[in-house]
Amino acid sequence: MRSMLKLGWLALLLMVGCAGRQDLETPDYEAVYDVPLEEMWPSVRQYFTDAHLPYREDRGSMVLETEWKQEFGGSKIAGYWHRYMVMGKRETPTKSKLWIIRITKSVNKTLSQPGKELDWSVSRGIGLNGAEPTLEDGSSVEDDEDRLSFPVGENAFYMESGQGTRDLTMEWRVFRGIAPKLAKKQPTKTEQPVAKAAPTFTECGQSILGLTKQAKAGGVLLLGELHGTQEVPRFIAQSVCQLVTSGVPVTVGLELPVENEARITTFLQSQGGEVDWLKLMEAPFWRSPYPDGRGSEAVANMLEQLRQLRAQGLDVAVFVYDHPKLSGQQREDALTKTVLAQVKAAPQRFHLVVSGNIHSRTAKGLPWDKQYRPMGYLLKDQLDDVTALDMAYDTGTAWICAANEQSRKLDCGVKEAKGKDNGDRFFMHTWSSANKEGYHGVFYVGHVTASEPAVLKGLGNPDAAPAQESTSSL
Description:
It comes from Corallococcus caeni. Residues 1-21 form the signal peptide. This is Haem-binding uptake Tiki superfamily ChaN domain-containing protein. By secondary structure, this protein is an alpha/beta fold. The chain has ten helices and 17 strands. Helix 5 (231-244) runs parallel beside helix 8 (297-311), helix 6 (261-268) runs antiparallel to helix 7 and helix 9 runs parallel beside helix 10.
């Protein structure tokens, strides 16, 4: 336990500013209990017991550590687990506080070491050698570093540890759960007993910096992504989880064919059994001869995570809006019409709309067509609150379909995606003004890893063994 206490001190030294939050109004300062430590600690034990977070305890030092808990519990391929180390601290003889350290482990890669320098440019390169920075459409972009102002407010600073970080979100969550029971009140004749409400707990992953600033009723947040990564679907699932567990109703718009609307809705309302998975995956979309990343294993897993949130009674809705039979401006117009109908039908909800990074631009024109009006541009003209964020990431891989100059056919497979390292922590950051593509900022997903088509990983049948690597040409 002494090593655990040392970790707590280390995490405190690394923690600065607001650490992100599930509760929309989590302060960026410590919660102090107006009772002695010995009086507060039994309620802390009871909170973690009621939240179904089993723990071991060093009773002599008032420190407990929970068992590992997987994100979205039961997720097929989430690959991330968290545990909490909780330390009672004596503020004064009559006051106390908690330090809660979130410790994360992943099957994908170790956590980054502290001290990395932030780089706020969003230029990227896609290709086998990653030599030429390009956008999803193949056009070149410039760093525009002079325009990317240093982040302010909630995103101003953050530090990471290879082992753990202090979690103010969880500290205040516990405080709000037990402080009312500890409050010293004089009983009155008219006072009625308060029914005990067991706290519900969903592990949504580490808080995404900057997320809650974007979550407004009636707001539309457009995320322009690079298809075919494991990280973007996880970013979406975590964002939704953190918002709905804080009481924000969220509708997710996915760039999947509208023909799949009923099938996806049915799956989200199902028990997620083998038959439910088979019905979801039997659509032609998942078996496209040119899988561009939208039908990936990670996307299928994201749908399962959203299904689990709905199964807990949380307010999550999903719609799809792609019209793949159309192209060019006709397609943009159709995408816009479908998204607009969803937003206007539920103006009290927060809409998170994900697409390739051409559709989400809010500026008119493309390098090859100055009159081109992307979906984001059209939505901005018809809605009051539209924010577009471009994807930023660290160098890695993605499942990408690109034109093969020799065969003149689409070449789909795992390819290098060149980005810039801003650490492993997910965040959103907005600039003081939009860039020339109409993006208002970036959402950052860390190192990217390719996610193969779901059907190649056996997700057409959840009990099937993963498919062997294909020997066909990519």
